[in-house]
């Protein structure tokens, strides 16, 4: 079926043993976007205009700088800095200072790569819902998964309407998968804590040894 996005990526992510397949999809989508802005997109007028207007968040600035095209990120950073400097007005008193602070906070809260990722991920959230309805092999895969990080679980619920008349069944499946796996993690995390009791020191860790980091990722995502 043609959903106009890479459905193979969805199949692959849901077949892996992970706490959130959407996090895996995001990592790949984000990598593609970052690579785009360190290659041909650097010199495109449309891209430079977006960078000037929106800039990059701290995480994406770091990822771009860690790439190979140091000149490209330097050029984008230079034009972004020029834009920010033009938007800064001289302040003479506390009232003007507060307004300037609000302008700066707003200007620094945007990121062209985050915007692109949000657009791309929205299509994946909608496609997961459509695949649940139209691909017979997909519901058992979703229902047998380890659920989702809470951020992506919320997004799947938000776009569950893409399942159409089957939205109620889809939401029920999402809820049951998430609740079951949050309960699993809660038990693993509890056992991690109990292991610090000397009476349990010789007992096996089971699946709890990395329960803390997996729970953090379950709560916060990537």
Walk me through the topology.
Layout: H1 7-14, H2 21-36, H3 45-54, H4 58-65, H5 70-87, H6 94-107, H7 112-134, H8 138-143, H9 150-158, H10 167-194, H11 211-220
Helix pairs in contact: 1-2, 2-7, 3-5, 10-11
Helix-strand topology string:
HHHHHHHHHHH
Whole-number tally of structural domains = 1
Average pLDDT reading = 90
Would you count the extended β strands for me?
Answer: 0
Beta-strand content = under 5%
**How is the biggest beta sheet arranged?**
none
- Alpha-carbon distance between the two ends: 29 Å
**What is the overall silhouette?**
globular
Quickly count the helices: 11
**Helical/strand content category:** mainly alpha
The radius of gyration over CA amounts to: 22 Å
Kindly state the percentage of residues in helix: 55-70%
Low-confidence region ranges: none
Tell me about this structure:
- It is built from 11 helices and no strands.
- The two termini are 29 Å apart.
- The longest helix is centred in the last third of the chain and has 28 residues, at 167-194.
- It has one domain (7-220).
- The protein is mainly α and 222 residues long.
- The mean pLDDT is 90.
- It is 68% helix and 0% strand.
- The protein has helices at 7-14, 21-36, 45-54, 58-65, 70-87, 94-107, 112-134, 138-143, 150-158, 167-194, 211-220.
- It is globular.
Question: Keywords for this structure?
Answer:
222 residues; mainly alpha; 11 helices; 68% helix
Structure at a glance:
With 222 residues, the chain is mainly α. It has one domain (7-220).
């Amino acid at each position: 079926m043609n959903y106009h996005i890479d459905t193979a990526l969805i199949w692959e992510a849901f077949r892996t043993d992970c706490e959130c397949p959407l996090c895996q999809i995001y990592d790949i989508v984000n990598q593609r976007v970052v690579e785009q802005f360190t290659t041909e997109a650097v010199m495109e007028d449309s891209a430079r205009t977006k960078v000037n207007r929106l800039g990059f968040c701290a995480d994406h600035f770091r990822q771009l700088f860690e790439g190979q095209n140091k000149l490209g990120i330097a050029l984008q950073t230079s034009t972004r800095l020029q834009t920010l400097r033009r938007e800064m007005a001289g302040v003479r008193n506390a009232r003007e200072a507060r307004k300037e602070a609000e302008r700066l906070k707003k200007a620094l809260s945007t990121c062209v790569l985050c915007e692109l990722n949000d657009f791309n991920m929205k299509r994946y959230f909608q496609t997961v819902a459509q695949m649940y309805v139209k691909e017979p092999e997909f519901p058992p895969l979703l229902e047998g998964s380890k659920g989702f990080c809470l951020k992506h679980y919320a997004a799947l619920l938000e776009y569950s309407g893409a399942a159409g008349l089957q939205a109620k069944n889809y939401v029920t499946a999402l809820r049951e998968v998430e609740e079951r796996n949050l309960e699993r993690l809660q038990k693993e995390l509890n056992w991690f804590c109990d292991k610090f009791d000397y009476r349990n020191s010789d007992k096996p860790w089971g699946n709890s040894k990395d329960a803390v980091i997996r729970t953090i990722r379950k709560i916060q995502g990537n």
